[in-house]
Amino acid sequence: MTELSAHLPQFQHGQLTENFPDNHISNTNDNSERRRHDNSERRRNDNPESETNGQPQNNVQQVVEQDEEEDEELTLKYGAKHVIMLFVPVTLCMVVVVATIKSVSFYTRKDGQLIYTPFTEETETVGQRALNSILNAAIMISVIIVMTILLVVLYKYRCYKVIHGWLIISSLLLLFFFSFIYLGEVFKTYNVAMDYITVALMIWNFGVVGMICIHWKGPLRLQQAYLIMISALMALVFIKYLPEWTAWLILAVISVYDLVAVLCPKGPLRMLVETAQERNETLFPALIYSSTMIWLVNMAEEDPEAQRKASKNSSYDKQAPANQTQNEDAEADDGGFSQEWQQQRDNRIGPIESTPESRAAVQALPSNSQTSEDPEERGVKLGLGDFIFYSVLVGKASATASGDWNTTLACFVAILIGLCLTLLLLAIFKKALPALPISITFGLVFYFATDNLVQPFMDQLAFHQFYI
Amino acid sequence: SEKENFATALPRVNRASGVWAFFWLVSLLLASLIWFVSVHLSDREDAKLQYGLLVFGAAVSVLLQEVFRFAYFKLLKKADEGLAMISEDGRSPISLRQMAYVSGLSFGIISGVFSVINILADSIGPGIVGIHGDSPYYFITSAFLTMALVLLHTFWGVIFFDACEKRRYWCLGLVVASHLLTSGLTFLNPRYEASLVPIFIITFITGLWAFFTAGGSFRNILNHQCRGVGKGLYFQGG
């Protein structure tokens, strides 16, 4: 269900080099900087003239071949950048969850189960336990499927207010109630004396700022931090209230569901994404972690809201080349070229500044590019459900494994590798992909393998103080 | 072009994160699988046999680690060639030496972390080291051994890649042999004089070897010093 996608810069590079193909070649002849500059000056002056002469085609053609090669480079560069942009929040979320599990005993104490998993796992026989956990998983998955379909139906029939309300209620619940419980348990663990008035003030501030950041506008970093926190809180709830076998089963089934829902033509999530694309809207920003921010000028009416339950399985696709109506807000007026990119360009074609004049000249050229987005704004997006389920896996591993830290680490590495692979596939296929299957599969395999095979081995080695 | 994408995306991703810890983990998994199977097929009560199986398991693990290092090298080489093909001047923008260093370092880190993290976690809790007659220096020697191992993995990575690159197979054999030797020396614990000291000597020698393999020389060090001190004033040249 959850998926991520990235839109990669196609023609940005091409636009700029259109002006300076000569420079690129002359660069390798070790020209002096000044000569390069002169060239560029002449080029810039030439272009408006060639335009008026009605012969801008030569420029365009000359660089089309260059474009394709440079395309590959950029694809990979941005691919790598996106990997890091996602590694950090996923790691942070997992670290928060593992730290809480290890220190606050509340989340590993068995205090009953959710109503979605009515069958208990404290049974006499193994067979009974297996049966119960399968039933639990089945019920949970059907609830999720029903909620997702409900969400898609509501979205299709434009019941934005209902979705809006639903999402607000769920974020209220998460931000106020669950964080209140979390805070209480942390205080209990560290034996900190606290009065209700201070707690009320803290929770009130935390919650209100969170609501504003997630559902309306706020600094990007703050919004990301809040999204990470609510994912961690949700994951902790799952870890506490899901019995063991049920949890593993649910993780396995939900990755299959994710695969089906996103890739099948009639899958609910795919329909959601396609509907959003048709209507030229972005999906619920509060359901999705985004590494960059887009300020939309015409996103007037309602902000498509984020959700809770089924929203965990929200999907996102940002592939629309039809985003021409958006007005991007570049952070700095450097034309949207990132520092890295600028350095690379400088290395290749000499130090040339992207000044407003040059940009105007470039934009005046008839280009065959469809987008004029800056690379900055094309971040990667990952659904919050992915965060939650990754953290559930790692948290469960750290809570119940006999291998303790070894198992936790192995699961952590496995999930990150899975995420890496998914991003690689994203760079290759360039469409919305489910982010759960690969990571969860690796995570599960590594959990069971490390817990049962590697742990006894390492234990014996450590006992004798052997090193391998 | 999809294949190119994949091959070329790898090194970038590699540089972005020590993803190659994964390879080490897989090798460890396979080795433990072999050990586990062998233990279950054998007589559990026989202590000597179990000890022997453990040694066997450790040796298998060392060999598998080197095999995976080689596999990683092959993968990187392919990616390197791919990149070189599509770049304009026929050279790939990634440096194989950097890759060697990163690979060795990530192997070392994951290996060190796996060896030591449970010990670290236990060292917080209440307890007395060696109360049952074992050595009271368990923690500190573990720390030193782990450090030596991390450094060794880094050096081995550099030497290994260089040897594969230049097809000096005797170098490869030497790396594998020194890994086996280091692992074997740890079997002499807790007689720490017999294990720690030789291991550190090996670390130092391997370090020097890696330094020269990576292209360093005494001259470089001297130049570095001169430049540092005199800021050009005392620079003697050469």
From TrEMBL, chain A:
It holds the Pfam family Presenilin. Homodimer. One of its GO terms (molecular function) is aspartic endopeptidase activity, intramembrane cleaving. It comes from Strix occidentalis caurina. Belongs to the peptidase A22A family. One of its GO terms (biological process) is intracellular signal transduction. Its main location: membrane. Signal peptide: none annotated. Residues 31-47 have a biased composition (Basic and acidic residues). Its EC number is 3.4.23.-. GO terms for cellular component: axon; endoplasmic reticulum membrane; gamma-secretase complex; Golgi membrane; synapse. This is Presenilin. The chain crosses the membrane at residues 83-101, 134-155, 162-184, 196-214, 226-242, 248-264, 409-429, 435-454. SMART domains: PSN. The keyword Protease applies. It is a multi-pass membrane protein. Probable subunit of the gamma-secretase complex, an endoprotease complex that catalyzes the intramembrane cleavage of integral membrane proteins such as Notch receptors. Keywords: Apoptosis, Cell adhesion, Cell membrane, Cell projection, Endoplasmic reticulum, Golgi apparatus, Hydrolase, Membrane, Notch signaling pathway, Phosphoprotein, Protease, Synapse, Transmembrane, Transmembrane helix. Residues 12-30, 50-59, 312-327 have a biased composition (Polar residues). The PAL motif is required for normal active site conformation. Residues 1-68, 306-378 are annotated as: Disordered. It is found in: Cell membrane; Cell projection, Axon; Cytoplasmic granule; Endoplasmic reticulum membrane. InterPro entries: Pept_A22A_PS1, Peptidase_A22A, Preselin/SPP, Presenilin_C.
From TrEMBL, chain B:
Component of the gamma-secretase complex. It is a multi-pass membrane protein. Keywords: Membrane, Notch signaling pathway, Transmembrane, Transmembrane helix. GO terms for biological process: Notch signaling pathway; protein processing. Coiled coil: none annotated. This is Gamma-secretase subunit APH-1. It is found in: Membrane. Potential subunit of the gamma-secretase complex, an endoprotease complex that catalyzes the intramembrane cleavage of integral proteins such as Notch receptors. Belongs to the APH-1 family. InterPro entries: Aph-1 (IPR009294). GO terms for cellular component: gamma-secretase complex. The chain crosses the membrane at residues 19-37, 49-68, 99-117, 137-161, 168-188, 194-212.
